[in-house]
Amino acid sequence: MAERKRNNNVDTDLSNLEAEGREERRSKRRSERKTDRAKVEKESEWQERVVQIRRVTKVVKGGKKLSFRAIVIVGNEKGLVGVGVGKAADVINAVKKGVVDGKKNLVKVPLTKSFSIPHPTSGDAGGAKVIMRPAAPGTGVIAGGSVRTVLELAGVKNVLAKQLGSSNPLGNARAAASALASLRTFSEVARMRDIPIQKLFAKDKEQP
């Protein structure tokens, strides 16, 4: 009788251990699924657009080496945008490298309530120059080429922009990114000058 009781106790202990192990495995699977969903949601926030894909050649000792260069613009339409360039032997890897490079060079854009820029600005990169002006609600994105793509992925919906100088897509995209990086809000300017923000809006008193 005593041996039977011992065996029963051992069996119950084993069954309890198995049940605990199953519960731990289930909890681990649930946590892994949650983390995977969070990663997918974070990745889905970013949008990628390929501006240009070019086939380039490099002269080496044995002849010519072919490769591809991709210009990719990455943004979340919430004030973050980046311009990246990727080079690889095939198009897919070139685009992937461009996405990684774009996320390394992100620019934060201060947006107004009307999804415009706070003040006029300009930027240049090489031979390309871009000027931007704020616009009223309902105007839309009036820009062309890669500048339009940069503004749309940054989340700007009302703006006037013009390309000056070179028509190179990479140069214009980088010029647009530098122009957006130079934007400042009123609170930032007041903090830099060490004055209250009310003084920025105050009119000069007329001298007698």
Describe the model.
The chain has six helices and eight strands; from the N terminus they run αβββαββββαβααα. With 208 residues, the chain is an alpha+beta fold. The protein has a domain at 47-188: Ribosomal Protein S5, domain 2. Strands 1-2-3-4 form a four-stranded antiparallel β-sheet. β5 and β6 (128-134) form a beta hairpin. α3 (145-154) packs parallel to α4.
Low-confidence stretches: none
Supply Rg: 28 Å
Spatial shape: flat
Give the number of helices: 6
Terminal-residue CA separation: 114 Å
Oligomer: single chain
Largest sheet: 4 strands, antiparallel
What spatial order of strands do you see in the largest sheet? 1-2-3-4
| CATH class call of the domain at 47-188 | Alpha Beta
Helix fraction? 40-55%
What would you call the structural class? alpha+beta
The SSE string, one letter per element, is HEEEHEEEEHEHHH
Short note summarizing the structure:
With 208 residues, this protein is an alpha+beta fold.
Give me the secondary-structure topology.
Layout: H1 2-45, E1 47-60, E2 63-75, E3 80-88, H2 91-104, E4 106-108, E5 121-125, E6 128-134, E7 141-142, H3 145-154, E8 159-165, H4 169-181, H5 186-193, H6 198-201
Parallel strand pairs: 7-8
Antiparallel strand pairs: 1-2, 2-3, 3-4, 5-6, 6-8
Helix pairs in contact: 3-4
